[in-house]
Amino acid sequence: MKNKHHDFLTKQPLSQQVTDFLLIRIDRGDYTAHDKLPSVRTLAQQLGVHRLTVFKSYQQLVHNGKIYAKDRSGYYVMPCIQEELKDSNLLHNLASVSDKSYDGTRSIQQLLSPPILAGINFKPPVVSSPLRTNMLSELQAHHVDYQFSKALIDPALLPNAYMSEYVKKVFDLYPKLLGTYSTVQGDEELRVTLAEYFKKRHQFFLLPEDILITSGAQQAIDLIARLMIKPGDTIIMERPTYSGAIDIFRQQGAHIISIPMLPDGYDMDELESIIRNYKPRMMYVTPTFHNPTGYVLPASKRKRLVELAEEYHFLITEDDTTYDMYFEEEPPLPIYGYDTEGVVMYIRSFSKYIAPGLRIAAVLCSPWLMKDLLTLKSLADGGSPLLGQKIFMHYFTSSRMQTHMEKLRIALSLRKEAMERCLAKTNWEWTPPKGGLDLWVQLPEGVSSVELLRRSLALSVSFVPGPFCEPDAVHHSSSIRLSYCYTSERQIEEGMQRLIDAYDSLIHTI
Amino acid sequence: MKNKHHDFLTKQPLSQQVTDFLLIRIDRGDYTAHDKLPSVRTLAQQLGVHRLTVFKSYQQLVHNGKIYAKDRSGYYVMPCIQEELKDSNLLHNLASVSDKSYDGTRSIQQLLSPPILAGINFKPPVVSSPLRTNMLSELQAHHVDYQFSKALIDPALLPNAYMSEYVKKVFDLYPKLLGTYSTVQGDEELRVTLAEYFKKRHQFFLLPEDILITSGAQQAIDLIARLMIKPGDTIIMERPTYSGAIDIFRQQGAHIISIPMLPDGYDMDELESIIRNYKPRMMYVTPTFHNPTGYVLPASKRKRLVELAEEYHFLITEDDTTYDMYFEEEPPLPIYGYDTEGVVMYIRSFSKYIAPGLRIAAVLCSPWLMKDLLTLKSLADGGSPLLGQKIFMHYFTSSRMQTHMEKLRIALSLRKEAMERCLAKTNWEWTPPKGGLDLWVQLPEGVSSVELLRRSLALSVSFVPGPFCEPDAVHHSSSIRLSYCYTSERQIEEGMQRLIDAYDSLIHTI
């Protein structure tokens, strides 16, 4: 596994070559002010040189004032070197990428970064199958001042202080809580509580053993995909859809077919024709305040969807993470409620609106699927941590919970309206959703959402470009997802103005 | 997906047939006193009848005093009906299974339960691949008074009260803790802490980005298996080995080859010959207080193993969950410490000895593997819950931690000695380990460990039979794993006496 061929490095002493290699990357902006450089170990491995060589090179750069060392955590880029870069570093360094070159398999890094220096032979990864990077998660990791790419609730809207006090009571109730594992299926007391909740709320008659607790909806989707999908299996997804689910099903080797999600749901005849042609194993849907559009699948189509699943023998995975985020009236019954044959696997996420750090979701499904799902869950992590389940349960059943949810709905609808007021100044189009966390906005035809992202990141504004939400091909490249839940109304106004500025600058260059 | 053919049910009114079906199962002991019966929904689905039919049948059984309803959580078996069963239900109901019929793919339920009533056509699961039930987890779910099957620390030995107090301080420090997601890789502050710990303890020079936090070692193994193993890939495992890892690698479709783990490690020439013949993609090892034998791979063989991995281009997954459980001197440096080429993926579990409920483990690996591992982790759950990571970190760096570990080592060695005193009364054989949580005991040749389990479960004693730990074929069927960490010294004495009684009764029937 050694790799000592670095042709471009053969003229000078090795440590000088490494120094030059680092200087090029810093000057080019791969590493900007206060960025951490690779560890000595890492870089030595990447370049196939001795660690002492890298160490010597870092010492030289420290001596020259190009980088600085911070106690034990590594080496960082000195800010002064960055002042030479006039433009925002991200803007400056983004490679020229057009929507046309987007093929659905490139990572955000590939989209946004310059190509790697020719001549450097990195060790090839030896993974079992080509991995598709979780693009959304990479995008969200970019720090920006105006964060419209995260469909997460602003921590300022959460009952943090109250919850912190609450936790202490939970520990008084369960003094051995941290010494105990949860069962694989999840804490029984929590599952009893949720069974009662589902009965009261939706008239779902469940036993605690019909419920699996997972570490967030993400894990639920992943477990279901691992359970049901083998490479080459066909899955139908809405278009657009949740980026994280696309990543999971692709990783599992699914063959993805899509059906457009319209303001009143899909064309059911078109859907049936797709089903007949492709014989899917599963359909993945977010029918209530659909991610990313916010649309709602009407009750009649929910019922019909279940009939289709029964008739054509496929399963429905209903991902219901935003059910409780309605602004006006309650949404229709979940698709799961129409199911009498056990064709629906229902994912309901709860902690997102209370304490996202807890990562609590529930899966409801028929017993014969539950049995195998439990096996996978036991292999995957042996059961979610008990602590979070107990904390969640006690808050979930408190009267305070209801009040919190009502306040949260009002706060979110105000933010949505603030964002819509800004959008009203543009010629962009959107269908106002009646709940959820996002607006799905169509830019005028021909405008590249990826190019707009590049420009808006430079102005410290982030959003999700349409292609991230495309399950199978390049559609909606002129659409963008704007989440209004993570930023204050004032931030929304400021950030939207910047986004509009970025758009104007883009239009003027076209 | 409907299934209405129940030939044996065609003579009587449907609800009476369902009632009979239930009575047979209760009388046979499938359901014993206070056992919960299937939900109306579940049973209706299984039998392909209307829910109201099942409901009527349950009402009839309640009326006849055979079962009782408990508020909203379902129907339960009335104790009186069980008094007709003289023997312990588990003993009574265990099917006759010999080791010979054990083929490595049957679940504990299949091993221990009577065959399902002929004539009932359950719906077939529609999973993507045949799932192997996590046998160990099923066995451990059996409630017994003397629990020697769990390699978990007795909660009574954990600093629960102190931790509970500690948690409150953690919340004072991070008031928005529950409103925040961890990064995918794990809390940065915790990774900085661990990097410093590894440097101080083992002279591993790491950056925080070389460390991934997972929800327990189980998740770490699962992620690594998903990353590295595609169906048909060869993996070498020790024989015997950790049952949970066998399940994961089998589920991933690995072709497993084994090498015997001896008190002084493997025969390195035999290993090299296996490697040459089978060209493995990975070797999975628990070299320090090996699970289940407690043996330690000597330093010289650790070094040689890394050389072999480099020479023959395979990766080593080093699962180091019991490193800190030494009774005398510290064990040799982890294999990871000998690796300069990035061939070792190192899993270190921490929370097990402090607060198992937190589920904290760390993976160390080379940057090019870390990148893909992070992608998988982001797909799998988006990052482990932050709360547990912060609680763990603060305790881990406290002075109290060191004292706790020292006390724990003493307590465990006393329990080990208590168990060994009991074993000394038998003609069973074992090599006293110098650390870990288990004894690996050879019964006299020809004695079936599965048959012994069946008899000992009837006496409320549980342990792990040898075949559970067999990665590839039937070996060690006369060996058993006895964990001494979960029960008090007194319980060990009582439970071991019962185990010996079960053994005596088995010997007398042979």
TrEMBL record, chains A, B:
It comes from the Bacteria. Keywords: Aminotransferase, DNA-binding, Pyridoxal phosphate, Transcription, Transcription regulation, Transferase. It holds the Pfam family GntR. One of its GO terms (molecular function) is transaminase activity. Residues 12-80 form the HTH gntR-type domain. SMART domains: HTH_GNTR. In the C-terminal section; belongs to the class-I pyridoxal-phosphate-dependent aminotransferase family. PANTHER family: HTH-TYPE TRANSCRIPTIONAL REGULATORY PROTEIN GABR, TRANSCRIPTIONAL REGULATORY PROTEIN. This is PLP-dependent aminotransferase family protein.
